[in-house]
TrEMBL record:
Protein name: DUF4365 domain-containing protein
Lineage per the UniProt record: Bacteria, Pseudomonadati, Bacteroidota, Flavobacteriia, Flavobacteriales
Highest taxon, organism lineage: Bacteria
Organism of provenance: Flavobacterium jejuense
Domain DUF4365: 39-154
Length: 675
């Protein structure tokens, strides 16, 4: 037997096998034993290695597959990549394994390992060819180097994919355990896995908290992942209905709230009341019920610690709107008593009290602006007809300064209180109304100023700050999806832009408002928008009032004054028998006679009805004391000059004086002329 190896007939070694061994020896050291378990496959059906992850020293069961290819040398393509062809059957086999899979490509000449993630390879195939599965071979262009950073990335990808499949399996088990529910499994773009059952549990557990945090968009997002089953609980339906309500999607809201009301017995009394209140509010808004039907329903709610207080606040606001300008001091005691009782009530929640305090402060701000208007009109009426009263100016200025300073301090204090609660909705709601208050205040200062020796102040910077703050308010309400407050913020901004004569910007904004209002299709909002479009902004109404009550009446006053002069001319030639008459001083006109046999006519002219006041005048007449009547005031409730010229409040006061003088003349109560 010949023992010379050079002369023996032996099987030849395969260079492909050698390359395979080389690639394996290069491949394995790249994966550290602390994180990977590598299992090389003897039988190669398209997988060279099945690998498993370790996590903090523990094997996880999370696996991945690697298919290795190698080549002696390979010239790169023009784009710098290295191409390798793979059969369709190999690609399909790796997909069927369900584990994450990777292709490796080792080039001996450059001693470089490249890799590609199967999912990225398939995604690229689908992008370039929708019928890729009908093609038997596909070329993969390698460019990612398999180094330490790549191994770290592979570990992260496989770990994430392992957790994903674990969650899917867990959700499948849950679905079997709750076979009475129609539950689907949701996987989002971030590979988060959720079952419908889990979503329902999350919404029922945290939904009201999300609503209270103004995060109703999150509730709607969660709900959108369900099958919208009719088997939802009353609590779930109520939460979803509230989310759509605050989103201003009233019809969708009503759908879920009606489902909830069918099983309201499963809800506590506070939630039952809240449910009935919101349903009734939507129906009233959509004109599905009358105001009387709404009031009847709400009045029958059982007392609780939440919605009952909100109903009282809403009712108080309506009362304030109705009665605010019906009293001399502009205050509405019924509103104030109601709001203050809620603020001091230990049963009311913190959120309810914050709302009550906000509404009270908004109310006080409106009164302060009206007080300013009232005082300025009074000063102007006096000074235009007479003289500049610096002492009275200072008195009023001090009062107004104190009033507006107190309002600012109250706003600051309430903002600080709200901040401690992290109630962003309450904060931006108050901030929005503060901007409206500031705008009304500054614009009123500019429109309604002193007629004589007025001081001009530039409020341009103030308006710019208000616009910036309004944008912040809008951004917040846009973020949380509260459309009505978005509309309110934009409507204030429109008024400011219109007042500043930025008409093009105002026109664009009103178009945006119209689109929004048409979208939600609420009649009351459409009417409000039409109103401000057609001269209903506060500054336009104030200017119109100013023209009607102050500017335009000037000509009328001059006409009436000329008539009074003519009456004086006529009376100069009339001889008066002082024996048969009493004497009275009509402030600010002068002294006149009152026939002794015609006292009742005197009382009628000034509408003096009280017996005591009649007796007082009669007693003074009979004693020879000359009583005084301030003709700026009508009807007369008190003898005397009162506050003299300070009672003059504009054209109305002049008209009172004119009417008194004319009636005296017509009834032959003539002026006493000192000759």
């Amino acid at each position: 037997m010949n023992h010379n190896l050079d002369e023996m007939a032996l099987p030849q070694s395969s260079r492909n096998q050698e390359l395979e061994v080389i690639s394996q020896r290069i491949f394995e050291p790249l994966f550290d034993v602390e994180r990977f378990v590598l299992d090389g496959k003897v039988i190669d059906n398209g997988i060279d290695y099945h690998c498993e992850l370790k996590y903090k020293g523990n094997v996880t069961g999370f696996g991945f597959n690697f298919q290795l290819k190698s080549k002696e040398k390979n010239e790169p393509l023009k784009n710098g990549t290295y191409s390798k062809s793979f059969e369709l059957l190999n690609i399909q086999y790796l997909i069927n394994n369900t584990h994450p899979a990777f292709y490796g490509f080792y080039i001996v000449e450059s001693d470089t390992f490249y890799y590609e993630y199967l999912n990225d390879f398939i995604a690229n195939l689908k992008t370039n060819n929708t019928n890729w599965e009908k093609q038997q071979n596909h070329t993969l262009n390698f460019y990612k180097k398999l180094d330490k950073q790549a191994v770290d990335k592979i570990y992260d990808v496989v770990l994430a994919r392992g957790m994903l499949f674990r969650k899917i399996n867990s959700s499948l088990v849950d679905r079997l355990a709750h076979s009475h529910l129609s539950s689907n499994i949701i996987i989002d773009f971030n590979d988060n896995v959720t079952s419908e059952i889990e979503i329902i549990k999350i919404v029922e557990k945290y939904g009201f908290e999300l609503i209270n945090q103004s995060n109703w968009n999150k509730v709607i997002e969660l709900h959108s992942k369900t099958l919208h089953s009719s088997t939802f609980s009353a609590k779930y339906n109520m939460i979803v209905g509230l989310a759509y309500y605050y989103k201003s999607d009233y019809l969708t809201s009503l759908k879920y709230l009606k489902n909830a009301i069918r099983e309201k017995a499963n809800l506590v009394i506070e939630l039952q009341n809240h449910l009935i209140f919101i349903i009734s509010s939507i129906k009233l808004l959509l004109l599905m019920i009358t105001k009387e039907e709404y009031d009847s329903t709400i009045s029958n709610l059982e007392p609780d610690k939440h919605i009952t207080f909100h109903v009282k606040i809403d009712s108080a606001i309506e009362i304030a709107k109705e009665k605010l300008f019906q009293t001399e001091n502009l205050r509405v005691e019924e509103f104030e008593d109601c709001i203050n009782s809620i603020i001091s009530n230990i049963e009311a929640s913190l959120q309810v009290k914050l709302r009550a305090k906000s509404e009270l402060l908004i109310y006080e701000g409106n009164i302060a602006i009206q007080q300013y208007s009232k005082h300025i009109c009074r000063i102007n009426a006096f000074e235009v007809s007479l003289f500049v009263n610096y002492e009275y100016r200072k008195k009023i200025n001090d009062e107004l300064q104190l009033l507006f300073t107190n309002i600012e301090q109250e706003y600051f204090g309430l903002f600080e209180e709200i901040k401690t609660t992290n109630n962003y909705f309450a904060f931006y709601y108050l901030l929005m109304h503060k901007q409206k208050y500031d705008f009304l205040k500054y614009s009123t200062f500019e429109i309604l100023k002193l007629a004589k020796e007025s001081i001009i102040i530039d409020y341009s910077d103030n308006y710019e700050k208000i616009l910036i703050n309004l944008d912040s308010c809008f951004d917040y309400f846009n973020k949380i999806g509260h459309i009505e407050n978005q509309i309110f913020a934009k409507s204030i901004k429109y008024e400011i832009l219109h007042y500043l004569k930025r008409y093009e910007l105002a026109k664009t904004l009103i178009a945006e408002l119209e689109d929004t209002v048409v979208l939600i299709d609420i009649k009351s909002l459409k009417e409000q928008l039409e109103f401000i479009k057609n001269g209903g902004t506060n500054h336009q109404m104030l200017q119109e009032l100013l023209d009607d009550k102050i500017n335009n009446p000037k000509e009328k006053i001059e006409q009436l004054r000329n008539e009074l002069i003519k009456l004086d001319e006529i009376e100069k030639n009339i001889n008066v028998n002082k024996v048969d008459h009493y004497q009275v001083t009509l402030f600010p006109i002068g002294n006149f006679i009152v026939p002794k046999n015609n006292l009742e006519k005197f009382y009628k002219i000034f509408e003096i009805k009280k017996g005591k006041l009649k007796e007082q005048f009669k007693y003074m007449f009979e004693l020879g004391v000359v009583p005084v009547v301030n003709t700026y005031v009508y009807p007369i409730r008190q003898e005397g000059p009162l506050e003299g010229n300070l009672e003059y409040k504009g054209f109305e006061s002049f008209l009172n004086m004119y009417n008194a003088r004319k009636k005296f003349f017509e009834n032959k109560f003539y002026r006493l002329n000192n000759k």
